[in-house]
Amino acid sequence: MNLYIPAAALGIVLVVKLPSLVRRRHSPVVRSVNAVIFLQASAFFFSAPPTIGFVNRTTGVSNFSAVLVYCLLSAYACACRVLMENWRGDVEVLPRTRRRVRRWIWGHGVVALLLIGCFVWGEAPVERQRDFETYYAGTPFIREMVLLCLFAVTAAAGAAAAACLRWARDIRSEFPERRTPARGLLRTGLTVLAVGFLTNVTYGAAKLVAVVAVWSGRNWEPLNQAAVSLAAVGTLLVAAGFLIPIVGPWLTVRVLEPLRTLRALGPLRRTLCGADGPQGRMRLSTPWSAGPGRRLTDRMTDIHDRMLELGAYCSDEVRGRAYAEARRGGRTEAESVAVGLAAMVRAAADARGRGMPPDKERGVPAVRALRAAEGEYRDLLVGISRALGSVPEDRNGGTTASVGGAALSPCDG
Questions:
Q1: Would you state the pLDDT for residue 411?
Q2: Are 237 and 10 in contact (CB under 8 A)?
Q3: Which CATH architecture has domain 4-262?
Q4: In this predicted model, what pLDDT tens digit does every residue of 21-33 receive, in sequence order?
Q5: Exposed (0-12), middle (13-18) or buried (19+): which is 348, by Cβ within 10 Å?
């Protein structure tokens, strides 16, 4: 896989999270999250063969990019550890958390120095852009540098995965009565993060197996190359895990909820469109490039207009009987109101479709009841649309509003 792809994905996450970093730059958790993303993106960028060749030519040192990438990976492992500590406790309240964070930073700083020392003491004269680990698996000091880096990265990814799964479990188990879409998105993001970190654990394990295979005289270079693809996939999952809690609420409000509402309004729209009259079918003026929110606004406006056009065909008696029958059937007040209005709309649409003469005076109380319900109940149109399922059409060519066993013809009243 092209390693610039996961690097670019993480770069997008950084850009999305930049406003949060600016607003909450004093938050250790926010700083830690951005450090993890930045360091992992940097590691992938400098691991790409074109970048490796450029770095080696610029520095004039064969395989200098190897120790650079390993130091970035060590820093990434340290950032993962620090992130776990900051998630576990508030560093401004718990001095022990600050001490643990400092210990991890000092510890991985020592690891970085050891990596540099091993590279200086070892011999790696031949540039290897893709198979550095397996090519130098038996070289003194270079071998230790490879093992040290892989152990650090694998352990850090495992700890991060365990922390994400534990946090997701706590969100699910604590305060179930307070479950909200935002908490659900956070739990989903943590689960995806855990899977991404576990994939990085698999990457480290596969690299270690490929190195050990070289020691026994086997050539498992394909496994070494497959590990790179695993790391790229894991990084994309990590990027998605960080983005879900950030982009998810916006996507839900601006896209998913309007689309769900548009779909729920389908039965009501089809019923109104079937009421052919002097003004013809409902026509939407929404441009093709409009988003779901604009489409929903236009759709609801068109439905309101057509329902007002049907006012002269509406019967408040049909609505009242359907409402009363729904209440006797055990439905809630809001559901009963929606059922009554659905029966009224279905009967009015059928009456207009069959060319029956309008009666404006008869429709005044019905329209008044509709407007009163709109002011009192939220998502009334959706409720009416869903209630139309309990108002089946009459097989004899008319409609029959059947609610709880009562049959209400369009001309009742």
A1: 35
A2: no
A3: Up-down Bundle (1.20)
A4: 888 878 887 888 8
A5: buried
